[in-house]
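General statements about sequence and structure are easier to judge against a single worked case. In the encoding step, the backbone of a single protein was reduced to a row of integers, each denoting a local shape. The record that follows shows the chain in one-letter code together with its fold in token form.
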Amino acid sequence: MSNKPYIIGITGGSGSGKTTFIKQIKEEFSEKEICILSMDEYYRPRDEQDVDDEGIVNFDKPKSIDKKALLRDVHLLIEGTPVNLPRYNFNNKDAEPVMLTFHPAPIIIIEGLFTFHYKKLRKLLDLKVYFHAKENLKVIRRIKRDQVERNYPIEDVLYRYENHVLPAFEKYIKPYIEAADIVVNNNKDFQRGYNVVAGFLKNKCAESKQS
């Protein structure tokens, strides 16, 4: 690639709408236009994660992610080299391993909880987008996701939210809202925010085709 890709970072607390937003982006843009890299694919194995005083594994810490591998792959994509890695299976031993391939593109989106917290990653970002939602709404969305989609017990979901998710949000995510270029309010829906970002992306794609 002759020109450096335009790099966008997306962050926000659990349940703020990042994943749903990314799904819409994938539906509207091709892989040739935008490469989307999720931090979720870089979780370290369960036996490498911290355990709290109750013996519960805490996945909501910056060191839960293999930051070096993430940065390595971002630099490979910037240089124009495809990246291959196994899809994270949320520690489901029965899940069939699936290999993912990420292709270089004029626009790279990096999405995850600690996208702004990692200093070296933050310095690479040309645009920073922060998803905001009220705490009670994020709890409800988290319960729906973890209990319905992943079949986690409600007590487990609430314990993790109170003891892991919320403290991590207050310490590693919320402080960076002032560093964001765009704040998407997702208390009701994010359609207006999506339209703004999608319009920006379309212009960037058009620019890349002309260069």
